[in-house]
Each structure stands twice: as C-alpha cells, then as structure tokens.
Design a protein that fits this description.
- The complex is a heterodimer of chains A (281) and B (336).
- Chain A is mainly alpha-helical.
- Chain A has two domains: 33 residues; 237 residues, MetI-like (MetI-like fold), CATH 1.10.3720.
- Helix content of chain A is 79%, strand content 0%.
- Chain A has 13 helices and no strands.
- The two termini of chain A are 19 Å apart.
- Chain B has 336 residues and is an alpha/beta fold.
- Chain B has two domains: 123 residues, D-Maltodextrin-Binding Protein, domain 2; 162 residues, Periplasmic binding protein-like II (D-Maltodextrin-Binding Protein, domain 2, 3-Layer(aba) Sandwich).
- In chain B, α2 runs antiparallel to α11 and α3 packs parallel to α4.
- Chain B is globular.
- Classes of the chains: A mainly alpha (281), B alpha/beta (336).
- Chain A: It comes from Sphingomonas yabuuchiae.
- Chain A: Part of the ABC transporter complex CysAWTP (TC 3.A.1.6.1) involved in sulfate/thiosulfate import. Probably responsible for the translocation of the substrate across the membrane.
- Chain A: It is found in: Cell inner membrane.
- Chain A: This is Sulfate transport system permease protein CysW.
Chain lengths: 281, 336
C-alpha cells in the first residue's frame, strides 16, 4: 500500500532509520532473550536437555500446567462469551460497572489476587474452618491453583469480544428473531459464526497467560514438588537449585508453547482481518 | 457456572489428599531454602532404613521457600507433616497462631530440636581483593555487602544478630552495636527476600564484594558453582544458628503419619543422619562426626540466641514492625 500510494513525505533515509531502530529494539529486547533461553537449555547438549524434561517433577509440573489451562480456559471462554453477549447486545443498569469488574484482574497485581484466595480459603481465612471440617482442600492444592488462574485470566476472552460484538451491532440477531429463531438458534447460527475468530483469538491469549502465570499461582501453590508446582514455578525452583540447564530446558518448553500460540494467533489474525474486511463490504 | 466450578473443586481435592494406602506413607516436609540438597539425601537414606526395618515404604514431598513464608503457608493450611525451618521463631508462630503443635515443641527432641547447626560466615570473591578478614572490614568505604532482608528471611536474622554480636563486642555497648549494624546495612545495595535469592545475586549476577551467608550455603556455593571462584572468610565472632525441626501434630494425626514423622526426625540424630548433615555442610551435633569433618568446620567464637533472650525477645526487639531494624533501615531510606 505504501509503495504505490505513499501516505508520508519523509525521505527514504528517515523511513529506513525508523524501521532499523524498530528492528534493533525487537532484536535486543525480544529476540536475544529468547535465543538465550534456548542456548541455555542446550548448553550441555540434547541429552541433558531431554533428561531435564522427563524428570518426574518436571513431568508433574507440565501435566499440572496443562490441566490448569484445560480447566480455566473453557470456564473463561464460556464466561467471556456470556458477558460480552450481555454487554454488547442488551441495555441494562450497571452495565459499566460490569465492564469495570471484568477489567479488575488486569488492574490488580497477581500477588494480590493470590492473597485474596488465601484470605478466603486459607486455614485462617473466612471459609477456612468450614473447609477443614469437611476435608475440602483448596489452597496449596490443585483447586486453589485453578481458581487463581481463572481469576487472573478472567478478562482475556471478554475483552476481545466486547468491542467486536459492539461493532457488529444487533441487526443480525434482530433479523433472526423476527424470522422466528429462538434465543439458542440465534446464538448458534448467527452470533457465534460472527465472533468465531475473535473468540479463538481471545482463547489463545487466555491460554498463554494461564500456562505462564507465576505470581498468583506462587502464592496459593505451597510449592510442593511433583504435586503443586506448575511449569513457571518449577523453572524458579530449578534455577534456585543451581540447575541452570534444567531451568532453561523447562523455560524453553514454556517459550515454545508461547511461540506456537503466537504462530496460531498470527494465522488467525490474518484470517480474522480478511473476515472483517469482508464483513465491511 | 459457579456450581460447575464448585463440583470441579470438590472432585479435584480428592486427588491431593495425603497418601494413606496400606504399607506406604507419604510425608510432606515443609522446609526452608538451603536444605534442598540435605533433605534429598536424608529422605533417600531414611526411606531405605525404614523399609529395611519395617518393610513399609515411605515417600516424601518437599516444599522449599523463605522460612517465614513457609511458616505462613503452614499457618494458612499447607498441611505439612513435619516442618524443618531456619529458626525456632517460625515454628513458634505455627504453634501460637494455628495451634497445630504444642507451645513446648522445642523440648521434645534433643539439642533444642536442632539436629544440626550452622553459623554465619563471609563468602568473598577469589583472592579476597577487598582484603576482608573480619566484620570491621565490611563497613570500609567501597565495600558492597549482600544479605537478604531480615523481615522475610530467617537466615538474614541470624546475619543481623551475628553482626550485632560483633558490634557489641567491639564497641562495648548496645548503642555501638546499633551504629555498627546501621553502617553495615548502608553497604547493602539490594535486599533480597530469601537466602537463596541473595546467594544467586552474589554468585550469578556478580553483585557485591561480600555475601554474608550460612556456612552451609557458602560451602555449597563453593562446591556447586565456583570451585576456585570464591573464598570463605571465617570472622572472629559469629552466632550459632540452630535450625529446628518439629512434627506438626495436628496434620500428622489427621494423616495418620505421626509415628513415622517422629522417627524421621529422630533419624536426623543418628550417626548416619549426622554424617549426611555434615556432608551437606551442616555442623553435626555428634562430636565424633564433627571431629571427622573438623577440616570443613573451623572452630570460632559463637554467641547463641539465648544471649539475645531467645527468639521471642529478639524478634520483638529487632525485627517486629517498629523494631531496631525498621529504625535503621527506615532511617536509611530517608537519607537516600
């Protein structure tokens, strides 16, 4: 676009300097650290790298991380669709309050989010005595980690969908209703196809954060090896044990998951872009 | 959705319960940072010993972190069968706030329930370029000292008290001790929250000229990372650090692990347990084992926590909010 119809009058020199600075910045602050993670992981060769990943504690951490993501991402996807549907398609009192509440986990430090759950479910917390009596363990066990992750990744799907659904308006739904479709039919055949790329994008972001969350999970985990350590926590433990290759090996696996997410996201964005452009015609 | 969440919660909590299967038990040992290597060895040795004697298998779960933070987690419900922390105060807190074990826990095992001890020494860079021999050298101009915050780190409280002991001996009064310690903390560029974090700062990030460290941490860093990169300097006076161990009665009873948990801690006092402690650079209580490792553990003048009136008094006077440390460090924050 810029080749055939330039929108700026800067000289090529200025343009190339700007592009160069941008690339240099990216290389220094994003690419170099990423390379260092993989270099650190492979510093002692493939065998040590693989050994670090098949260590029982590492495997347990990987399993737990995947389990937590598998529970928290669907919960937040359902919630995100429901909330943005309500916000974008209906008018009601307290709508802006709901929007602010959805943003709350973004503005609260993850450590505080973790402490909230300790105060609620900890042995000295509000619900602590009741939980102890009934033998239900939440804090320092998997449920606490899931709860903290759900809280922290709460806004991702909703934040992605609200602007999209607001932009699309209610015309399609109103047309469907006037032709006799039920609420569910409208949702499945009209709304969902309209938002599917945005939804996938939100789910991916949510997933990336769910697998990478450190602060909130650290507070509620109790750091029991092989039991309540997620991958990010396991990386810290290995690093503190002077096992730098192990730490970087698990970190590189986390980074790879992020890179896959990023790749899928780019593809989706491209499809999404086309879809949006198509919708505008 | 809330209902689905609750069901998921209850369902999942089932799989995190303590192992109660017949013939095999699982113990959760909640410990502090520098004991990772020690308990890896102790657990393996005890499991072998226990199986040989009883035919039952015992497995272990470990949780490591700053001593104060670990104590807090047990109070908040981390269901440890045994706690092996940096100082008695942190176990006192569990007894006092959560009532999970009796207040007299420390008298239940020999030697104040501390099967191994350590002391505070200096780790300096190879060749000791700043010429550090004793505490007085730490407050010379241009010397940077690395020590974690005594607010959050058990180890750092021992550091603080060792420094205080020197200040008092050198200056002859509490006022002189406070002045020395204030000078010392003015030479600290960054206060990490835990002992292992401070070690990493010094060793990995290369910050500072001296690390005030547990003797066991110093010896371990020398072995793990820097054979030939660091020297250990033993000061003229230090403090006898007694990291205590205890069965958390309420949790162990609930899990049915009380007898094996007690045996586990007693194992630490056996010659085999003492030998493992010594090989992991903790000073053994057993004189015969200590004599065998005399080259690793030089003799030095040591005060004990009793010289400060016990941990309750020391905590209140030095580290509680508004205590001596706040006065020193708060004053510095304002000066900066």
């Amino acid at each position: 676009m810029s080749g055939s119809n330039p929108t700026t009058i800067e000289s090529p020199w200025a343009r190339w300097t700007l592009i160069g600075v941008g690339f240099l910045f990216l290389a220094l602050f994003l690419f170099l650290p990423l390379v260092m993670v993989f270099a650190g992981a492979l510093a002692k060769g493939w065998q040590v790298f693989l050994d670090a990943l098949v260590d029982p504690d590492a495997l347990a951490a990987i399993r737990l991380t995947l389990l937590v993501a598998a529970i928290s991402v669907p919960i937040n996807a359902v919630f995100g669709v429901a909330a943005s549907w309500a916000i974008a398609k209906f008018d009601f009192r307290g709508k802006s309050l709901l929007i602010s509440l959805i943003d709350l986990p973004f503005s609260v430090s993850p450590v505080v989010s973790g402490l909230i759950f300790v105060l609620l479910f900890g042995a000295q917390g509000w619900l602590g005595p009741w939980l102890t009596e009934h033998g239900v363990r939440i804090i320092f066990a998997v449920p606490g980690i899931v709860l903290a992750t759900v809280f922290v990744t709460f806004p991702f799907v909703a934040r992605e969908l609200i602007p999209l659904m607001a932009e699309q308006g209610r015309d399609d739904e109103e047309a469907a209703r006037s032709l006799g479709a039920s609420g569910w039919q409208t949702f499945w055949h009209v709304t969902l196809p309209n938002i599917r790329w945005g939804l996938l994008y939100g789910v991916l972001l949510c997933n990336a954060r769910a697998m990478g969350e450190f602060g909130a999970v650290s507070v509620v985990s109790g750091h029991i090896r092989g039991l309540t350590n997620t991958m990010p926590l396991h990386v810290e433990i290995l690093y503190n044990e002077y096992d730098f290759v192990g730490a970087f090996a698990v970190a590189s696996l986390l980074a790879s998951l992020a890179l896959v997410t990023l790749g899928v996201k780019t593809v989706l964005e491209w499809r999404f872009g086309i879809h949006r452009a198509g919708a505008a015609h | 959705m809330m209902a689905a969440l609750m069901i998921g919660t209850v369902g999942l909590s089932g799989c995190s319960g303590g192992g109660n299967g017949k013939g095999s038990v699982e113990l959760l040992n909640v410990s502090y940072d520098p004991t990772r290597e020690l308990y890896k060895d102790i657990n393996a040795a005890f499991a072998k010993d226990y199986q040989a004697r009883t035919g039952k298998t015992v497995s272990f779960r470990m949780s490591h972190g700053g001593s104060g933070k670990q104590s807090r987690s047990v109070i908040d419900g981390l269901s440890a069968d045994v706690v092996t922390l940096a100082l008695a105060y942190d176990i006192d807190a569990i007894a006092e706030r959560a009532k999970l074990l009796p207040a007299n826990w420390q008298s239940r095992l020999p030697d104040n329930s501390a099967p191994y001890t350590s002391t505070i020494v200096f780790l300096v860079r190879k060749g000791n370029p700043k010429g550090i021999r004793d505490w007085a050298d730490l407050v010379k101009p241009g010397v940077q000292v690395i020590t974690p915050s005594p607010k959050t780190s058990g180890g750092a409280r021992w550091n603080f008290l060792a420094a205080w002991a020197y200040g008092k001996k050198a200056g002859g009064s509490d006022a002189a001790a406070q002045k020395y310690v204030a000078d010392l903390y003015a030479h600290v560029p960054v206060l990490d929250s835990g002992a292992r974090g401070a070690t990493t700062t010094f060793v990995e990030r290369g910050l500072g000229d001296v690390l005030i460290a547990w003797e066991n941490e110093a010896l371990l860093s020398e072995k793990e990372l820097g054979a030939g990169k660091f020297d250990i300097v033993v000061p003229s006076i230090s403090i006898l650090a007694e990291p205590p161990v205890a069965v958390v009665d309420a949790n162990a009873k609930a899990h049915g692990t009380e007898p094996v948990a007690t045996e586990y801690l007693k194992f630490l006092y056996t010659p085999q347990g003492q030998e493992i402690a010594a090989r992991n650079f903790y000073r053994p209580r057993d004189q015969a084992v200590l004599a065998k490792h005399a080259a690793t553990f030089p003799k030095l003048d040591m005060v004990t926590i009793q010289d400060f009136g016990g941990w309750g008094a020391a905590q209140k006077r030095f580290f509680a909010d508004g205590g001596v440390f706040d006065a020193i460090y708060g004053g510095q924050a304002k000066r900066r």
